[in-house]
Design brief:
The protein has a domain of 33 residues. The protein is 59% helix and 0% strand.
Length: 107
């Protein structure tokens, strides 16, 4: 006798409420199995995608960009003050320290 037949035979002996619990558990197991399969397929796809993206890189003899190419825009941005998050002078009016005044309420 196959396992499914044995399960069916035993479940038929249970009260209907308990059979419903068995059904819920079987559905849970099916959902869990489907999630595991989906996760495995996703991992296979990720590995395939990475392998495809990296194909041929080992044969490259010299880099496409030099270290100087990567540093040049940063040096230009720093000299302008934009990469450090500083504002250039004149973009925001200077406010006097009004917190010394007792009627001052901060925003």
């Amino acid at each position: 006798m196959k396992v499914a037949e044995k399960i069916n035979k035993q479940v038929q002996r249970l009260p209907e409420q308990t059979q419903a619990e068995v059904l819920d558990f079987v559905e849970y197991l099916l959902t869990k199995t489907e999630r595991v399969q989906a996760r495995e397929e996703e991992q296979e796809w990720t590995q395939f995608s990475l392998a495809s993206a990296m194909r041929g890189i080992e044969e490259e003899t010299e880099p496409e960009y030099t270290e100087g190419d990567l540093e040049e825009p940063l040096v230009d941005a720093l000299s302008r003050g934009s990469a450090s998050g500083r504002r250039s002078r004149g973009t925001r009016p200077h406010r006097r320290a009004t917190h010394l005044n007792s009627s001052y309420t901060p925003r």
